[in-house]
Amino acid sequence: MSGLTKLGDGMNKHGNMFFSWEKDLLTIEIKGGFNKEGMEFWFSEIKKYFKNNGFKVWRRLEIWDEEAMVIPESIEVGKLIYDWLDDNGCTLTAVVIKNNLQEKIIKERFKSHVKIFRNKEKAREWLDSAHKPLKQDK
Question: What is the rounded CA–CA span in Å between residue 93 and residue 115?
Fold first, then answer.
């Protein structure tokens, strides 16, 4: 039952995210389809995760699996997440997608400064070439 977790109020959240840091690069692996409850849950987890990251500016690499998707009811929460990440120091974002529908959702709905890729290595190359290291407090 991967991707399905029972929340305290009896609602089911769908979708999973996995976070990792490599210097100032945050990688978020996005797995499965997300409903509104799942997006709200992960938004609160992202805020907790960032509480102690120590970076004022940083980059983001998102890797979506084949099933990563949001339903219309959860898109507004997705927009809030993207805006929050941008407002909290994210200067470059590369998203690795698997299909045209994912690309359409990102381009039409999230309106963030995102560059879309189909290949993880190309996304990393772009992030590294577009990145100008800044002195961090860490």
Answer: 6
86-101 pLDDT tens trace: 999 999 999 999 999 9
End-to-end CA distance of the chain: 38
> Residue 67: how many CB atoms within 10 A of its CB?
14
Helices 72-87 and 36-50 cross at an angle (nearest 10°) of 10
Tokens encoding 23 = 């210097």
What the chain holds in terms of domains, given with CATH numbers, is: 11-40+56-130 (3.30.750.24)
Does residue 32 carry a pLDDT above 50? yes
> What is the pLDDT confidence band of residue 112, given thresholds at 50, 70 and 90?
low
Residues 136 and 43: their CA atoms lie apart, in Å, by 25
In whole angstroms, what is the distance from residue 101 CA to residue 1 CA? Answer: 24
51-105 pLDDT, tens digit per residue, is 777 778 899 999 999 999 878 888 889 889 999 999 999 999 999 999 999 998 8
**How many CB atoms are located within 10 Å of the residue 12 CB?**
13
